[in-house]
């Protein structure tokens, strides 16, 4: 179809590539050259060039092949969607769409691996020249004309003879950076965007504890267990290569990123206790960020002390510094850009409202530029995007017109949906198409044992400590549920596949893959059963979380969340909201009278108007259950109800104190007002059957 | 921030690369090897390897650089959007968003070219080895380890010494295939999708004539003029390389693709005469398809007669055959997949309606898979996508739920918007960042002269011939307007940049770039003025095109469009609609009684229900002006009005005859019914000032 093109500039997405272009070889060749220079010779010497001829590949053919490959993925997604629809239609909960995507991926992988064979005539002209260095770019002089070659990667010697055989398999394999630069951002952004901020901030303390302490704990627990396991393997001679403690720690960091997307979907569908939902969701969102930064700082540790893998205090502190640096940097950048976009939208969108398309476009571009900016500054784009999402949902979103709020929401929803299912189906595919798998029974068993212990060492001790602090205890059944909900997903996979050069990394990747499969299929499938046998309340309207909780505890929530929540709420509501959005009270009322003129010029006319009919942004601007479930079209009424309740709830002063009081006191009113809307008052001792059954009739 | 990655599989988008992987060099090396084999020697002999060392590039640095580069584009888009908003706000029509994007692109290009200098320490380790062949893949053996290199492209000798200098400039340059595989499809699809089918089909004959005959004519006219121009240059010794007649023809094909996006935007805003709109839009959409296939078949001609660029009858017929083959193939494939999706959606979406996200996802994936499928089968994906879009808008779209109709519309709207502005800003950028520009005054002047003549030779003769056929004449002022509206845009650029290897191609590319700039800025900007001085009616509601036209002409429209329109309408309404959508009459009523049982089992229950409250799909399921203008939020009432009129219009039998009669007769009723909604009855002799003015108050 398409005519030939001879000019090949680097692809834009190629440009999105990670520092990975710094391979070991080139590093090696630096050392080599250094040494050579030291010996005062020319860095690289002329060498013999022996070549092997393989028959010429028709590029047209390869292009078709390529399109066909991509088509495979599209069809996989299509198939997944069709089946998801069937499942949703039947309200089957034993298998989530992501699990489904993986299954299809596996099947397709089997077909590609064993079904299809590339005709042997489709080959490269390969010509291997013996040199000392392998630079990133090679200039080849073909009878006066110069051609530029770029380094693609290393080929393990045993693949040399059958380069063309697994050509096709390599074709259906991505640059791992695609995940970090194209697929993960929308997912993470959407997560931050759909964070239920009211509940999130109420449990901020606990969530942060689980996310930071917990992830660190589980990382080190898993790391040390795996180190023991590796030692055992070394003794029994199962170890085929180097495996240092840092590798174990890296593995710990990789598999510490939980991704309970399956569980949360079911939680939402069954309207499980909101506290639990908030804890789980908040933790999983944040610990993705923690895990990714943790892993990069562990990798940063590795080269220190020139590969003598001894413990090195300075290097360790360096790593810790890197961790703190990258994390806080990314956080700051994300939040900052979020605020900037809020400011832009604040000053503009009120006039822009006529053009929803432009708004949505701007919003999308701004979110993306956050990611790029962070990467450009050497921070972690994914983390930045997460916090940018949170900030934007909190401020920028308020300044969008209703029309484009819907558009934006739906756009990111779709992107998230596609990206997620794509990653999971790709996971399934790699199980068979990935070339360098290394399944080691001992390591695998050890790993499963480790992640179990690691999760336990994360949840139970922390919950115990937290319960000392919070009077609204995290019940043991909730703890068990959190323990159970420790699924591994997209982030773990992306981190694992990011680097599969060494023996250790390959083993880690294969094991991570199995862990993801197991947790998503088994734990994900067992969620409903687990919920019922743990007697966890379902069918709770997200506004009525106070209903179940007795008076004393409700007060305690206030006390518990006070020191953090109150502080935040106060600052945010009095200064940030008015500055960045058109909601919130006018600054003139909140700022001390001394800076009256400043306040006046900073306050937008809208603010005054709004003052009467103030909306509770904290609740109605969250993409909450109601909105998420726009996905499946049901219970948008839910969102409305919040809005209304919010509206009623917030005809209040500006001090956080009474605002909080009202907010919490309102539980009673709500009980009266909403008594009618109670879906199914269920006692804890309910058999799963009727639970599913009730859920089927309940929230529909 | 991201850790290093060593395993680099080809990027997915990389996979989307065109047959371009078949460079001349590798072709050369085939011949070389063939010759060598004939002489019975080893194909390639060991050769000396002389190398130049350039200092090592820090990959981390390059990654940041890359992100920064991408950031540039994002910021360009953001800037454009912000300014567009300003223009829309001020209702300024002298400069369209695309023109704006180009300006910003140019500015950014200047900055990149002259402003920024890459620090000289950021360089490649370059090492050039002297070999006879340059294969697509090179295996480099670095002390036992093998590394794979892939061919990136040729580097002109004079660039050799400053590879690192224009490194950055090359970084902000795309693989041309990105345009064909990522940016064009959404644009083309959206064009097909937003085709106003009722008016399109009514003028089908004329549109086809302009698109096929017209494009062919202008291609050959331009081609021969340019050949004369080239001959002149050869005489005056301005020609720096080969320039064959096929190159001229290719140039003709490239610049024959009109893209009056600017004009159409203004047309819509001013609600210009719908006939004109339909003619222009239909032509521009189709002639993109024609131009792209034409160019590939001309390229296919080139190699024939092994580079002896003599006229070769067989080769010419081969090219014609290729043209017909590719075009009809792509058309068939697009239509087919469109129908398939319609069938799937038909059988599914009625049940899927609860889950709009899934519907939109499916719709999106299906559209994309059409493109891939066509490419995989060696057809032209872009053309396939176009007709797929038309088909889907006609059938599949009917089966979507209202919710996801909105979502889908908005999604493709956004994609189209982003892609379009991206391409145009990139055009501006390339004016300065592209390395091998070749501006030749003679050629440029000749080209401008040629496109003018080509357009004229397209519009006027054809209009004359068509006017013999159609009694509803295309007025001379409309002809002048169509002449004037021959802007060149995205497609011309994409075709030109696709291959810039040879001297001829580079000159063509540079010239095309200038042509695009000129037409978009000058013609685009002058549209409003042109409209008024040509006395073209504006402020026509798209439903009321009958109002202006006297009774006689309206009848004539029927007569004119009869033979094609009637045939199509009949078949479509009686068989396709019922089969593929839930609208339309049940088959049982349309099929002959003999095949009653078939009809019964094929007819969906909805069809019977629908029979009472049938909707006129032809009108209300078109993404018509009203919908397009959702973009800027105004006149959705427009769409509703059509629907209502449609609903009233179609309580009719199934024979196309009386359906048509009613459809056309209804003009009168509409005149009565809608008399109130007449926005501004304006006489043709209106000064531009009040024209703009009226438009400002009118359709807002």
Key phrases:
two-stranded antiparallel ribbon; NaH_exchanger (chains A, B); endosome (chains A, B); sodium transport (chains A, B); transmembrane helix (chains A, B); homodimer; mainly alpha; 700 residues
Describe this structure in words.
2 copies of one chain form a homodimer. By secondary structure, chain A is mainly alpha-helical. The first copy, chain A, has a domain at 176-303 and 312-534: Na+/H+ antiporter like fold. Chain A has 31 helices and 3 strands. The first copy, chain A, has helices at residues 12-15, 24-38, 59-90, 97-115, 157-160, 167-171, 177-193, 197-202, 204-235, 245-255, 261-270, 274-301, 313-352, 356-376, 381-394, 396-399, 402-433, 441-469, 476-484, 490-497, 503-533, 545-548, 551-580, 587-590, 596-602, 605-612, 617-620, 625-628, 636-649, 656-674, 688-697; strands at residues 126-131, 137-142, 145-155. Chain A has a two-stranded antiparallel sheet with strand order 2-3. In chain A, a hairpin with a 2-residue loop joins strand 2 and strand 3. In chain A, helix 9 (204-235) crosses helix 10 (245-255), helix 9 (204-235) packs across helix 12 (274-301) and helix 14 (356-376) runs antiparallel to helix 15 (381-394). The longest helix of chain A has 40 residues, at 313-352. The model of chain A is unreliable at 1-58, 120-126, 544-560 and 611-700 (pLDDT under 50). At the A-B interface, helix 1, helix 2, helix 3, strand 1 and strand 2 of A face helix 1, helix 2, helix 3, strand 1 and strand 2 of B. Strand 1 of chain A pairs parallel with strand 2 of chain B. Chains A, B: Belongs to the monovalent cation:proton antiporter 1 (CPA1) transporter (TC 2.A.36) family. Chains A, B: The chain crosses the membrane at residues 70-87, 99-116, 178-195, 207-233, 322-349, 361-390, 411-432, 444-466, 478-497, 503-524. Chains A, B: Residues 80-532 form the Cation/H+ exchanger transmembrane domain. Chains A, B: It comes from Gopherus agassizii (Agassiz's desert tortoise). Chains A, B: Pfam families: Na_H_Exchanger.
